[in-house]
Amino acid sequence: MSETTATAIWTVIIGMALTNFALRYLPLAVLSRVKLPAPFLRWLSFVPISVMGALVASEVLRPGGSWTPPLGNPGIAASALTMAVFALTRSFLGATLAGMASFVALSAFM
Amino acid sequence: MSSPTDTQDTHTDAAAALALHGTRRQRFMRGARLGIPILLGYAPVGMAFGILARQGGFSTFEATVCSATAIAGAGQFIALSVLGSGAGAASALVATAVVNLRYLLFSTTLAPHVHSARPKTLAWLGFTLTDETFAVNVADLRQGTATLASMSGVGAIAWTGWVGGTFLGAAGSALIGDPARFGVGFAMPAMFSALFVALAEDRRHIVVGVVAGALCLLLPLAPALGLPELAGSWYVVISAIVAASVASAVWRDE
């Protein structure tokens, strides 16, 4: 690992804080003041589930950014179990913990 | 007020009434409790960031300030790895900005629900907007139980978990060792899995979510078809935009 200077570190810290805030805040500030057209609102209503579907697929099936063969991937069963626990209990906490525990247990066997 | 997003106000049940009519503090604390799973997911991943940041030349103070001002999980890890590879601060900033473009989408989605927020509240909601706070708040909005105060509480507990975890990881990096053995690596995927179920209102949503997931797995194959290769962070954004667009074109009656 090459040496990173304090200047580079602080440039990254400050730059990251500013860009992140701009990306997150500007649409909230600008778009919450105007009335959005109905087709756009309908489109937005499908965005959260789409984002979550994409996140689950990439985090579970391509952990660390590369495809993992499904048979050797404990994340698939652990993810299914997490979904089942949440569907039954509606508890984010319980489901997340069950997912982590089952992932550790399944990893030991695979 | 006759926009379709306001109709939820007309059919609040008892639980919703309770969630909506407490004091500001009670509503804030309700949000904080709602966000406890986020805290549990963030604390260990924050620790992992703290440990890696120390290995990458950050001091404990720098690592903690970085998490406290950026609260960007994947973005921060990518900044670290770009810096560590010897590329300069500018490359690290571009990489993290690309990864975090999805926040534009989240922020746009939340915007219609926060039109009554005061500037300070709006700034706080923007500052604490992450994949997880977004998903928890959207699920809560769908139930008609979310308020500006509860959303602020969700953000506060998430921030606390991320920053606290980073500090503990950075300060104790020599003692902790590899956090992976506690299943930490699966905290985020597990939370996303649970949130997927929470956001799946009906069969349409499940179909759209599955389509987005499939697209997200197919996009990395683009170079094999002669299409340009994309940075991994674009997969989620592009597949979500495409899936939501197809869905809103097919199902026009909602």
Task: Describe the protein.
- The complex is a heterodimer of chains A (110) and B (254).
- Chain A is mainly α and 110 residues long.
- In chain A, 75% of the residues lie in helices and 0% in strands.
- Chain A is extended, with a radius of gyration of 20 Å.
- In chain A, 41% of the residues are buried.
- The model of chain A has no long low-confidence stretch (mean pLDDT 88).
- By secondary structure, chain B is mostly helical.
- The longest helix of chain B has 24 residues, at 148-171.
- Chain B has a domain at 22-101 and 110-183.
- Helix content of chain B is 70%, strand content 0%.
- Chains A and B meet through helix 1, helix 2, helix 3, helix 4 and helix 5 of A and helix 3, helix 4, helix 5, helix 6 and helix 7 of B.
Short description:
The complex is a heterodimer of chains A (110) and B (254). Chain A is 75% helix and 0% strand.
Model regions low in confidence, pLDDT < 50 over at least 5 residues of chain A: none
Decide which structural class fits the backbone of chain B: mainly alpha
Summarize the main sheet of chain B.
none
Indicate the proportion of strand residues of chain B. under 5%
| Gyration radius from CA atoms of chain B, angstroms | 20 Å
Helix content of chain A: over 70%
Could you name the ranges of chain B where pLDDT drops below 50 across 5 or more consecutive residues?
1-12
Strand content of chain A: under 5%
Shape of chain A: extended
Relative helix content of chain B: over 70%
Q: Structural class of the secondary elements of chain A? A: mainly alpha
Count helical runs of chain A: 5
Terminal-residue CA separation of chain A: 32 Å
> From the structure provided, what is the oligomeric state, counting identical versus distinct chains?
heterodimer
The pLDDT mean of chain B sits at 84
Could you give the count of β-strands of chain A?
Answer: 0
DSSP helical segment count of chain B: 14
When the domains of chain A are counted, the total is: 2
Q: How many beta strands in the DSSP annotation of chain B?
A: 0
